[in-house]
Amino acid sequence: MNITVPTLLLDQEKCRRNIHKMAAKADQNNVKLRPHFKTHQSWQVGEWFREAGVDRITVSSLRMAEYFASHGWTDIMVAFPANILEMERINRLAATIKLHLVAVNSETIEALAQGLLHPVYTWLKIDTGYHRTGILPTDHGHISLTLESIKQSVNLYFSGFLAHDGHTYKQTEKAAVQAIHNTTVSALQELQTKYKPHFPDLKLSLGDTPSCSMLDDLSGVDEIRPGNYVFYDLTQQHIGSCTFDEIAVCMACPVVAIHPERNEIILYGGSVHFSKDVLPQADGSLCFGRIVELTESGWTAPKEGIMLVSLSQEHGIVKASDAELAKYKIGDLLYVLPVHSCLTADAMRGYTTLEGEQLEHLSGLLK
Amino acid sequence: MNITVPTLLLDQEKCRRNIHKMAAKADQNNVKLRPHFKTHQSWQVGEWFREAGVDRITVSSLRMAEYFASHGWTDIMVAFPANILEMERINRLAATIKLHLVAVNSETIEALAQGLLHPVYTWLKIDTGYHRTGILPTDHGHISLTLESIKQSVNLYFSGFLAHDGHTYKQTEKAAVQAIHNTTVSALQELQTKYKPHFPDLKLSLGDTPSCSMLDDLSGVDEIRPGNYVFYDLTQQHIGSCTFDEIAVCMACPVVAIHPERNEIILYGGSVHFSKDVLPQADGSLCFGRIVELTESGWTAPKEGIMLVSLSQEHGIVKASDAELAKYKIGDLLYVLPVHSCLTADAMRGYTTLEGEQLEHLSGLLK
């Protein structure tokens, strides 16, 4: 492999292992797995999920739904509040695949009921504590009103209640993640009990990467939707979702300058490559990536005494101990585990496997 | 215009005004303008610079240099420490255009001297206080060593000393920016005096957007390289480089949810659209964008009582007063001035002018 510019490496073996592990866990728990594909956004990586038995997926935009539909996926949920301005796109997709949309209010339901030409599977998003969006589980007035609108619409089919526990990302203890998960499952189950008489088939959908990775018991819902686990990253390792060894992507960045007087290495690799997500350290310092070394079959665990500590648009600044600094020279490649693999993959727009194969990312295609 | 997804609007008139104002200022100061094109990365916007008399440009990568070379630019500086791993690309470019590279150490100079097949204009980057990279102006040993290597090389031509005062971005007072600028100019001039006997044609190149926008006297150097001023943004307005009225780009984002109980509007528009740069406010709160209203000929100044306060991957959260909240409904578009236009343009990969024309961004092309 001849790497000359910032490049996102993908360890296919680790990635496939992550994919199969979660599929096995879903099976054991007797829940359907509807993985979120926004992390990888690659039809090739998608095929590895198919090999693991996955037949339904989650995406975060209609464009992403179109992309994966064009690669043979026929059961796709867009897990973002339905954007009624894209009605044409919704109708085009709904004509050809089993399209699932998420509504967070009755206004959206009414607009969909008016504009839809084909059946759409509709989930109500419940705000179970993250407080980004969704209807509160106690707001039975709004929920009933919305379900009534769905019932009267020709093309809306009520699939069930959905939640996203984004607040698990702030945790670092399994017990805390478990507590959040239990609270959410019980809130969703209460709603299920209440509305099942009117919608006997209603399902429950849940599942962020921390809870799906850290918890053993994922029963009590019908499907789970983790996404980041395909690659994991330093944020997930910090939470406790994965080991360093399960992180399946790594940036290769050219060394363009070394400043021994302040123990700094300057990389070609900045916020347009990594994105700007940061992992604050216990001592208050900021981590934008951890440094590894390549091995014959992949890469090592992160090294001590060397860390990516700052990013500007194209520059990365690595702080290194004398011993680590001495190992690098200008023109070398330095390998960095990313803080947030979803955003890094989106910024890098493609992957290079350890075998040298180029894999596509939707954001690398023409708009 | 039928906007249905997050879209970056470009006010062509404002943008052209920004371009012409800086060109006139350079003329008055009798310095050459070599604008940095990394902010817009668009051949169409490049043409507006050409109309303003610009014939030399700055970029931040060899790929960007290739792009603008393919659009007729023949005098291009890559203002990033030369990446010796890209020697093939350097040689391809140097064969066809006047290519300027930046070196920050003698190792790079030696590698270039060995690998170059065509003449390259070489600038030494001096660290005048930003301390990201560059050679300290007092490090005459390293500078002399490097210049000696350049002199002995066949294909390296020494153009002069270059600096980037990135620390002006932390200022908000003209006097502070003036002090930084004066210090840098005087450091560069000392080097010029010292090395002019050996390199009679050596030039000085300087110039970030804050100093080039805020200061009247830009004399004392040979060329200036501001870039962000083509669009400006909230960061530059905060520094004092521009008025709100000079910000030439604005995001249009669909409203997908409204939460009156906590005065929040949820936008389709997150960190994959805006990037994650933030502008901390005086009261400690975080600003990810300010809200404007469209007018017949562009947009208003930012409104009070409403602000983009949080971004996740695809969601934006806007906090709004009761009065502002009451103005919006689901399916509306909300217009947001960005915190950092370079990163937002890079993430958005293209522009829509107020006249509805689509303009290209390099990052929207196939890799």
Automatic annotation (TrEMBL), chains A, B:
Keywords: Lyase
UniProt xrefs under InterPro entries: Ala_racemase_N, D-amino_acid_metab_enzyme, D-ser_dehydrat-like_dom, D-ser_dehydrat-like_sf, PLP-binding_barrel
Domain of life of the native organism: Bacteria
Biological process (GO), any one: D-serine catabolic process
Pfam families: Ala_racemase_N (PF01168), D-ser_dehydrat (PF14031)
Molecular function via GO: D-serine ammonia-lyase activity
SMART domains recorded: D-ser_dehydrat (SM01119)
Domain D-serine dehydratase-like: 248-355
Similarity-based family: Belongs to the DSD1 family.
Protein's name according to its UniProt entry: Alanine racemase
Organism of provenance: Pontibacter arcticus
Source taxonomy: Bacteria, Pseudomonadati, Bacteroidota, Cytophagia, Cytophagales
